[in-house]
Write a structure and sequence with these properties.
The complex is a heterodimer of chains A (401) and B (323).
Chain A (H helix, E strand, L loop, with lengths): L9 H4 L10 H5 L2 H10 L3 E3 L4 E4 L2 H9 L4 E2 L26 H10 L2 H22 L5 E2 H18 L7 H12 L6 H7 L2 H11 L10 H10 L5 H15 L1 H16 L1 H9 L4 H12 L4 E6 L3 E3 L2 E3 L4 E5 H4 L34 H18 E6 L4 E4 L4 E5 L1 E6 L1
Parallel strand pairs in A: 2-8
Antiparallel strand pairs in A: 1-2, 3-5, 4-12, 5-8, 6-7, 9-12, 10-11
Helix pairs in contact in A: 6-7, 6-17, 7-13, 8-9, 8-10, 11-12, 13-15, 15-17
Chain B lengths: L15 E10 L2 E7 L13 E6 L5 E5 L9 E7 L7 H7 L6 E9 L8 E7 L6 H10 L4 E7 L18 E5 L8 H7 L4 E7 L1 H10 L8 E5 L14 E5 L4 E5 L5 H7 L18 E5 L2 E2 L7 H5 L3 E2 L5 E2 L3 E4 L2
Parallel strand pairs in B: 7-8, 7-10, 8-9, 10-11, 12-18
Antiparallel strand pairs in B: 1-2, 1-6, 2-5, 3-4, 3-6, 12-13, 14-16, 14-18, 15-17
Classes of the chains: A alpha+beta (401), B alpha/beta (323).
Chain lengths: 401, 323
């Protein structure tokens, strides 16, 4: 591969793709860039940031699962050392990752979530009852934001105060996984104040006694995790548990707008809600990208990613790779979306995926019973973020059944 | 047909192949198991065990004692025990390199949690789950001490490797008349030390009593469990009834329930297909599942009210599931 006389520059072995994956053009419409990325090869050099990228399903999935070769502990953003402390779970490798993961995973598992179900069903039905009476609904603020904000902070056990700023908080943190661009600049001014208020809210004394937050502190009392980790995990729940669900719920409304017949299919058989939600997560990939770092020289296809280099995993691209998915751009309830990487895969797979699925199921069941058609009611506008893909507004009319 | 030497798979997961069998102490052999397709095995952490299905539905649990940075192989160390109803004799006398063996899990009831240091106490073959813990404590640069006792030195697996750790590892054969003073060592352990104990019942009981005044969670222990499964693991076909649609499927033991359900046109969402993520969890309305997942704990498994069709299957003739 290399000889002492004439070292071969690695980026010359790997196809290169110009363009800024975090620029406004690609963030607004990532599909052409992603198609080109997949076409160039299983791993591609992105000169804009001096990093590598993967966009094909098979290699992305294999890399996500291979935590030994593709590290998260060096940060899952473009910069190795970001300006805020590392995530207490997302940016740890084994063995440090073990304790937080295995403490959080059962707390957010389906059997422990069952206690919330009745309340969440009621809240979803009350919300939808109200929305069907309105002439115009913004599916983002009125539904996709309103529902998670009405259930998830309660489930964690944090106070009511300032819930809207939770979205600004996590939005900025997701922007920080990308380069220091205009999106980061924009969020910077308001961030310190929001962050300090949230620090107060995640304190042990500020948490309600029966939520996930208190349960994490109980795990710390039992020595399963350290107190520092307990606080960090409560913060992680807030960062990763709301914005992502907001954009996923937005995505499913967008998906049904794109395929009205699929809405009728769901109404005919509401048990398909779970599949519908995961198909929307595949189709829209609300979390578009995350970085890994090569722990050694890693061979991908016939190329080598040198040790220490960052690799951008394009989850959204993998979820629309025609090598894996038939007619990937269509939202189709007859598809089995199992195995999509919208929640990641492997040891860092979304630990809150069962929470997201339960929230979505509650919302979709309520909508399916009460709404005969979901119609567009104005121009939607995109919400740009370095990591997330979603909508700022999505005006719709929910035609009552 | 002897299931342990056939290539029958558990659910969607193939039986693992024995690629090495090595005597590592008197009466102890170490097996290396790999996926016959050359694929990664499900991830595990120190303290984890796998469940081997041997002949006639006999199942036995063995702690993993290899290196989890190697995703391609599991290692277990098996003591020949006359009381094991033939399981360990079978492994020692019959199971050979090239044979296949069905594996459930990995599962972990003995997790290594954060600590300022570790006091590891092993009796006999109870050393096996502690071997990866030693490696991990070394990796994290945390202080650790191993107190390892057995009847005779030549029967004590891994004892020869412990000399490289000097005073960290105290190895005692009781036939020399030399005994470890566990109570004194526990008493002397610095605050913030977590104590891990694995060994025979009497030893674990004794360590429990020495730790009685320590805060909850400081002592973590694993007993040798020899509990029998309620229903033997089967090697005959069984029926899966899908309650929501009334469809009835006949499955061979090696087939994946998940694949069969989806093939029958019933949507069933899955993700990891390794019994790890929990996405495909499906309520069980009647029958006894043969659980192969890494998610449920022993109590949850015994309820027989839910299962993970990506890797689990039926122990009874019929399984009615809410799909």
């Amino acid at each position: 591969m290399t000889s002492p006389e004439a070292p071969v520059r690695t980026e010359q072995q790997v196809p290169s793709l110009a363009g800024d994956p975090f620029g406004e053009t690609v963030l607004s419409d990532p599909f052409e860039f992603q198609r080109e990325l997949r076409e160039r090869g299983p791993v591609v050099y992105l000169p804009e940031y001096g990093v590598y990228g993967m966009g094909r399903y098979e290699e992305v999935r294999a890399a996500l699962v291979n935590w030994q070769a593709f590290l998260s502990g060096n940060g899952v953003g473009v910069n190795p050392a970001r300006q805020h402390p590392k995530s207490a779970i997302l940016e740890l490798d084994p063995p440090d990752h073990d304790a937080p993961r295995h403490t959080l995973e059962p707390l957010l598992g389906p059997r422990r979530l069952a206690r919330f179900k009745d309340e969440w069903v009621d809240k979803a039905e009350a919300l939808v009852d109200e929305l069907v009476q309105r002439e115009h609904v913004d599916a983002v603020s009125d539904l996709a934001e309103a529902f998670p904000l009405s259930v998830f902070p309660d489930a964690i056990g944090i106070s009511d105060e300032g819930r809207e700023s939770l979205l600004l908080y996590s939005d900025h943190l997701f922007n920080l996984f990308g380069p220091h661009n205009a999106l980061v600049e924009r969020g910077q001014a308001a961030f310190p104040e929001i962050a300090s208020r949230i620090e107060d809210q995640v304190h042990r004394d500020a948490l309600a006694p029966d939520g996930f937050g208190s349960e994490l502190w109980e795990a710390a009392d039992h020595g399963d995790i350290t107190g520092e980790l307990a606080g960090g995990l409560v913060r992680s729940l807030l960062i990763a548990g709301i914005d992502t669900t907001v954009h996923s719920l937005g995505a499913i409304i967008e998906a049904f707008l794109s395929a009205p017949d699929q809405w009728q299919a769901l109404r005919a058989d509401p048990r398909r809600a779970r599949v519908a939600f995961d198909e929307a997560v595949r189709w829209a990939s609300p979390v578009q990208t995350f970085f890994r770092t090569a722990s050694r020289d890693v061979v991908v296809g016939d190329a080598t990613v040198p040790e220490g280099e960052k690799i951008l995993m394009f989850l959204g691209s993998a979820n629309r790779d025609p090598r894996r998915w038939h007619d990937p751009d269509s939202f189709d309830l007859n598809r089995d979306p199992s195995g999509h990487v919208g929640f990641g895969m492997g040891i860092h797979r979304c630990v809150g995926q069962h929470v997201a699925r339960l929230e979505a199921e509650c919302v979709l069941h309520a909508l399916a019973r009460r709404v005969s058609r979901i119609e567009p009611a104005g121009e939607p506008s995109l919400h740009l973020n370095n990591t997330l893909r979603g909508w700022k507004t999505l005006p719709v009319r929910l035609v009552p059944a | 047909m002897n299931p342990a030497t056939s290539s029958t798979s558990a659910g969607g997961r193939p039986a693992l192949r024995v690629t090495e069998k090595k005597s590592i102490a008197a009466g102890v052999c170490r097996l290396t198991l790999v996926d016959p397709r050359g694929e990664r095995l499900p991830d595990w952490e120190p303290g984890a065990h796998i469940e081997l299905t041997l002949r006639q539905g006999l199942t036995r649990q063995y702690s993993l004692c290899g290196d989890r940075w190697d995703p391609m192989a599991y290692q277990i160390a098996v003591l020949r025990e006359p009381s094991s109803r033939g399981a360990s004799e079978y492994i020692h006398d019959e199971l050979s390199v090239g044979d296949s063996v069905e594996v459930g899990g990995p599962r972990n009831n003995f997790r290594m949690v954060p600590a300022e240091g570790y006091l590891l106490i092993a009796g006999g073959i109870g050393i096996t789950p502690l071997i990866p813990m030693i490696a991990q404590a070394e990796m994290m640069n945390l202080p650790w001490t191993l107190l390892y006792s057995g009847r005779q030195l030549e029967t004590m697996a891994f004892a020869d490797q412990m000399s490289e750790y000097g005073a960290h590892a105290v190895v005692r054969a009781t036939d020399t008349g030399d005994r470890l003073d566990l109570a004194a060592s526990i008493e002397a352990a610095p605050r913030g030390t977590k104590i891990y104990c694995c060994g025979p019942e009497a030893m674990v009981d004794a360590v429990e009593s020495y730790c009685a005044r320590l805060p909850a969670g400081m002592l973590r222990r694993e007993r040798f469990a020899a509990k029998e499964r309620q229903a033997p693991v089967r090697s005959l076909p069984y029926e899966v009834e899908l309650a929501q649609t009334g469809k009835r499927l006949v499955l061979q033991p090696g087939e994946s329930v998940l694949d069969a359900v989806v093939a029958a046109g019933v949507p069933l969402l899955a993700s990891c297909r390794e019994g790890l993520c929990g996405t495909c969890e499906t309520p069980v309305l009647a029958g006894v599942p043969d659980h192969r997942d890494s998610i449920l704990d022993a109590r949850e498994r015994e309820r027989n009210d839910t299962f993970f069709p990506c890797v689990s299957r039926a122990a009874s003739d019929r399984l009615v599931i809410d799909a």
